[in-house]
Amino acid sequence: MDGLFITIEGPDGAGKTSVLNELFPRLQFASEKEMIKTREPGGGKIAEKIRDLILDPAYGEMDDRSEVLLYAAARRQHIVDVISPALNNGKIVLCDRFVDSSIAYQGAGRRVGIEEVAQINQFATEGLTPDFTLYLDVDSDTGLKRIQRSRGYQVDRLESEGLEFHQRVRHAYLKLVEQNSARVHKIDARTGLQDVVDQSFSAISTAYPDYFKEMVE
Ligand SMILES: Nc1ncnc2c1ncn2[C@@H]1O[C@H](COP(=O)(O)OP(=O)(O)OP(=O)(O)O)[C@@H](O)[C@H]1O
Ligand SMILES: Cc1cn([C@H]2C[C@H](O)[C@@H](COP(=O)(O)O)O2)c(=O)[nH]c1=O
Known about the structure:
Blueprint: E1 4-9, H1 16-30, E2 35-39, H2 45-55, H3 64-88, E3 92-96, H4 99-109, H5 114-125, E4 132-137, H6 140-151, H7 163-179, E5 184-188, H8 193-207
Parallel strand pairs: 1-3, 1-4, 2-3, 4-5
Helix pairs in contact: 1-8, 2-3, 3-5, 4-5, 4-7
The site of adenosine-5'-triphosphate (ATP) has 16 residues, from helix 1, helix 6 and helix 8.
């Protein structure tokens, strides 16, 4: 069995971080393969530095195309430093966000253009595509309210965008789900956290039964 590349996507406040914190140990318990959990932007020394810059609300004047390029640069470095070595060693990589985020946030949210953002990312990734993607779906209103409740005024540069920006992001994600139905599995993330974790585990272990065994107590 080779390495397996799984990503988790969703609008801000969908619950990716909360879900991953519970899903990762559960998947690890169900698999004999080594697993790593990582995130974008970031995941490595250089990419985390770029993350600090991109998300810092002090840089509100950042140009939209510069933003696309910074996300792509962080991604490139993350692939070289972390993702590719792990996959080449046969590991399972669970990654919080990847190219789909750039398509949704920069392509649609910032209106830079889906095709343009896809092309830049093709250069950055040399075509590396996740084997499987979980998309946690939540309406923008609910997502933003969750973020406000948990982080108050400590929201980052992207989270602080208005409702219409986040609605464009969600709409683009829903289109991605439609267009990539073999890869992207949508989960309704408005339900309770435990339910979302259970559905996520079930989706992955059903798609890859040779990698994950359901543990019977
Ligand atoms: N299913 C859920 N139901 C209700 N609240 C939830 C659910 N999932 C997460 N939350 C809460 O919503 C807030 C945001 O969750 P979390 O940080 O996991 O989201 P996220 O998708 O990682 O956000 P971001 O992409 O902005 O980092 C937290 O306070 C978390 O406890
Ligand atoms: C990878 C990626 C991310 N974003 C946005 C989405 C979020 O608002 C932040 C990352 O924060 P998180 O708490 O780690 O989810 O960045 C983006 O706009 N484009 C991207 O490619």
